[in-house]
Amino acid sequence: MNKSSRKVMSFTGGIHPVSAGKKLTNTQAVHTAPLLERYTVLVQENAGKAPEVIVKPGDKVLKYQLLAQASGFVSANLHSPTSGEVAGIVEVPGPMGVPALAIDIRADGEDRETDPFEPIPDWRSTDPKVLLDRVSDAGLVGMGGASFPTRVKLSIPPGKKVDTLILNGAECEPYLSADHRLMLESPCRVLEGAAIIGHILGIDKIYIGIEINKHDAIAELERFSEDYGIKIVPLQVQYPQGSEKQLIHAIVNRIVPPGGLPADVGCVVQNVGTAAALSDAVTLGIPLVERIVTVSGKVLKDPGNWKLRIGTPVIKAIEFCGGVTDEPSKLILGGPMMGFAQNSYEVPVAKNTSGVLLFSRRRALNYRSGSCIRCGRCVQGCPMGLCTCLLATAIEGGRIDLAEQNHVMDCLECGSCAYVCPAHRPLVQTLRLAKAEIRRQRAAAKAKAEK
Amino acid sequence: MSLFTNKKENGGIRLPDAKNLVLSSSPHLSSSADESRIMIYVIISLLPAAAAGIWFFGAPALRVILYSLVFCILAEAVWCFIAGKPVWRTISDCSAAVTGLLLALNLPPGVPFYVPLIGAILAIWLGKQIYGGLGNNPFNPVLVGRVGLLIALPALMTTWTPARGMEDASYPQHHAFGLTDPSKPVTKATPQKAEGELVTCATPLGVASTAVAKPGKYRFRKIDNPKMWKQYFIGRQGGCIGETCAPALLLGGILLVLFNLINWRVPLYFAGTVGVLTAIIHYFAPQVTPTPIFHLLTGGLLLGAIFMATDMVTSPISGTGCVIFAIGCGVITTVIRIWGNYPEGVSFSILFMNALVPLIDRWFVKRPFGYTRRKEV
Question: Is ipTM beyond 0.90?
Fold first, then answer.
């Protein structure tokens, strides 16, 4: 097939952020980080309930040994990134800006492994239930950013029928290239993982959506994809192409209803990183304890992609990159559009940390905001079709009810509006404020009704 | 609570210090486009029309443009100084410069300096700053200035000078069609200053509004024929500095669309509505109004539709809203042109529709992703 004539899919709305950031890292192979002396593994790596810690200070642990047991359905297991001794359960700066509990592991330098699980190479003839148990045993969570337990995402609610699996390889965030390198360097792990998820769900329609700026990854995956019966879908370079609802719309042209889940339109969306980790968990029998992280920013000496174990403090990742050449003013975990700014370099890398970005003073400090000139760029850019500027104006005027009527709760917080705003208004922040207030009001109303 | 000592230097590797980190909400990137850049692009789009105005009306037009620019920027500076706003920051957003240039393009070419001065004060103070400055004004500031002047100084504001190529005796339509007649101007009001040194003429619309019907003949035959259309299109007609030359205005409009500064629906539906309505009326009652081509090429319709109605601040946000807004402008313009006291109605129609924009914005909200027309979940 002539590739240039192929239809490139996309969604309506969205923006085209500067693409230069990806070039810092996307041509470099993934490095494996050397073993550290100490890891601080966050107890709560997953969305939902924190798992229950089952080790005590002084315990000797081996690599892949279970550190914390999932407590409830929306929770995930946690495994040790190396062998050593548990020094204690300590408080570390958390990725959300508040101190978080972490298991402090002093490595013994031997990196001895346990064999927690039996590898299942012939998963095609294995009962999906066994595989699903493996998914939760291995502590898999969504590695795109939300870190939602994969087990939950793969458990289709009764009454819903899914027929399509979409793997998200869009990686639309500027600067990040971790998924790109993963697809390029281990295409078969990604494809195998996709096929396993397909087997678990009983789905044979599997797509992998990739933005066309990763043409080498598309070509690499296409070399093997036919063996797995998986279709590679090239997507336009447009942010937020990797947002679940937008991705489904672009690839299978289905529209997820407001407040709905992909399962409502028969789809399941998984990140390519999650698929690769799932493939390891099933075929090799190893739990999720490391991931590829893009460590990037112009102030870094050697930006690159690193395979980091969970619990690696960010400062160590920066050290691996040769340190900085200039003092950074912003540290971001995740992508620059939706990631979280940090106030400490001791934040550990978690299962959902796709990027560690350092921005210089010039990039970081640009806060002078003016008043709305109603240019409508935010409205053009909103992938959810919201009139962002009017919502923000209403919220600033105290009319949260008006914002609620106009669907502020559908906001993805993707940041497209604030990116394009010529007045640099803090639109996402304003909308978030209203969303939090509406959630609070709804909870209060519910509590009152229950009384 | 330091778990890992942050030494500045660690084996020759420079490590950052957390003290320098700033926190902010996502997104952490923003496009380089800001308000001043938008305004500069608007000015660039206005340049063809301004250049055409200077070409057709000569030095007086250039003088008016410069006066208007300077006065608008000064008016903004004075207001900011009195109101305690940052003067340089407000001026550097270039919005006063846009207002100044647009105001000049909306003035007759030969007006004395105090006309742009009063216009600038009206536009900047009464049109914009009194509401809180850029972005908060409900009405197009330029039109507030222009309409204020039209009411306060009706004589000066309707004294037109002939364009280049019209004063030439070889220009066949010169006297024959009564467009330019220094001794007997078609407009009733003639300022004292105009005598002797200022050759005046009438706008085609002005002629149309006073044209006398002769029995059995098309009332507008002298001003509404293919030969004249060609002259109007080039810019050989009386009028405001920036409204006469259609190619320059269209070029400006294309630039605005390319720069993504305007919603293309507004000029298209505005001019289209005027064209369709006048076509219908002309078809059934040719003595009432000239052809739609005449209407499209004369007066301030193109300038209004391309540059005034499309003003970001005072036009609706959604596409549907823009269509409603533009059709409203077109209808009111047509009504005023045909039945109103003023020969021209573009300014009034836009100002009227400006007042409705908040309502339009509320009624015609864009449908968010995932909501179907029939039922809302």
Answer: no
Q: How far apart are CA A124 and CA A195, in angstroms?
A: 9
Q: Find, among A190, A186, A181, A180, the residue nearest to A211 by Cα.
A: A180
Whole-number pLDDT of residue B162: 81
CB A322 within 8 A of CB A300: yes
Q: What are phi and psi of A228, to 5 degrees?
A: -95, -5
Nearest-CA neighbor of A337 among B25, B22, B35? Answer: B25
| Yes or no, beta carbons of A432 and B28 under 8 Å apart | no
Alpha carbon distance A417, A296 (integer Å): 24
Q: Which residues of A touch B21 (CB under 8 A)?
A: 328-331, 341-345
Name which of A315, A359, A420, A428 to mutate to probe chain B: the one with the most chain B Cβ atoms within 10 A of its Cβ. Answer: A315
Residue pair A421/A394 in contact (Cβ under 8 Å)? The answer is: no
Q: Report pLDDT digits (tens) over A307-350.
A: 999 999 999 999 999 999 999 999 999 999 999 999 999 999 99
pLDDT of residue A325: 92
Q: Are B371 and A255 in contact (CB under 8 A)?
A: no
Provide the residue ranges of all domains of chain A, joining segments of one domain with +. Answer: 20-27+117-284, 377-450
| Smallest Cα distance from A317 to chain B, Å | 11
DSSP string computed for A59-103: -EE-BT-EEEE--SSS---EE-SSSEEEEEEEEEE-TTSSEEEEE
Mean residue pLDDT of chain A comes to: 91
Q: What is the mean pLDDT of residues A231-240?
A: 92
The CATH superfamily assigned to A20-27+117-284 is NADH-ubiquinone oxidoreductase 51kDa subunit (3.40.50.11540)
Q: What is the pLDDT of residues B45-92, one digit of tens each?
A: 999 999 999 999 999 999 999 999 999 999 999 999 999 999 998 899
pLDDT at A47: 86
- Give me the residue label for tokens 């550290």: A36
Query: What's the whole-model pTM score?
Result: 0.88
Peptide bond into A116 cis (omega under 30): no
> Which strands form A330-333's sheet, in the order they lie side by side?
A31-32, A304-309, A290-296, A355-359, A330-333, A340-342
Evaluate whether A254 touches A248 at the Cβ level (below 8 Å). yes
